[in-house]
Amino acid sequence: MDFGAARPWCLVLLIGMALFMQTMAQTGVKEKISNAQNSAQLQDLASFAVKQYNSKQGFQLQFVRLVSAEQQVVSGLMYYLVIEASSKGKSNYYEAKVLVQAWRNIKSLESFKQMKKSGSTDVETNV
Hints:
Helix content: 25-40%
Distance between the termini: 63 Å
Number of strands: 6
Shape: elongated
Strand order of the largest sheet: 1-2-3-4-5-6
Strand content: 35-45%
CATH architecture: Roll
Number of domains: 1
Number of helices: 2
Largest sheet: 6 strands, antiparallel
CATH topology: Nuclear Transport Factor 2, Chain: A
């Protein structure tokens, strides 16, 4: 049996497995999105989160701005957004989780939490 001809295929297989393992290792890791404030798509997601929260909880928060964003690969993309919103002239910061599954045309608010000034959460509302 001539194993010399099989060596290139073994190398290709090993490289392919290494790339697959690297991709799998990155799945599920939260990554900060740089310049999130300048992204129209992320601004729309933040505004969507506030509107959904208002609709489900009966509040009248007004979207002010997107402060920061992270994303995580799940069965789609989970976005972790820090949002500034106001009510009755008083601004607060909120953490929102929005799941996007583009191939299923799904956008879903998973949670919305008011943050304390120190950065930890104060009130959590799973929507």
